[in-house]
Design a protein that fits this description.
With 129 residues, the chain is of the alpha+beta class. The protein has helices at 19-35, 74-84, 98-124; strands at 4-14, 39-55, 58-71, 88-95. It has two domains: 4-96, Ribosomal protein S6/Translation elongation factor EF1B (Alpha-Beta Plaits, 2-Layer Sandwich), CATH 3.30.70.60; 97-129.
Length: 129
């Protein structure tokens, strides 16, 4: 049995595709990961954004972030899958430190609490401490 590690991958789908086609590409990536023994932890469709520089003569892309647990052997197969998938114009996969994942979760919770406090203070007109 191989060691399962936590990975994250961000990939950019051609934004010229229709929304249904973009969802289909993201679903294919998720299905590929699950078929190869991965467990999806988080999938975040970040939406269409302007690229910092043209990639394959494209100026806009649809960003998708996925965090997953998988055996190390899955990553080379995922790289090949992205290479063969014409709709994916760029991708990056990294091994994610569990401590960083926990830090991101705590930070997100703190930001949510802070936003709720700001909203409450705006309603009541009192200063925030």
């Amino acid at each position: 049995m191989s060691v399962r590690r936590l990975y994250e991958t961000t990939y950019i789908i051609n934004a010229a595709l229709e929304d249904a086609e973009i969802d289909a590409v993201a679903a294919r990536v998720n299905a590929f990961l699950e078929e190869n023994g991965s467990t999806l932890v988080e999938v975040n469709k970040m939406g269409r954004r302007r690229l910092a520089y043209p990639i394959k003569k494209k100026y806009n892309g649809f960003y998708v972030y996925t965090a997953f647990e998988a055996p190390a052997a899955t990553l080379p197969m995922l790289e090949k899958f992205f290479f063969l998938e014409d709709a994916v114009i760029r991708h990056l996969s990294l091994q994610l430190d569990p401590k960083l994942r926990e830090f991101r979760k705590v930070r997100a919770e703190a930001q949510a609490i802070r936003a709720a406090q700001m909203a409450e203070a705006a309603k009541t007109g009192s200063p925030i401490h």
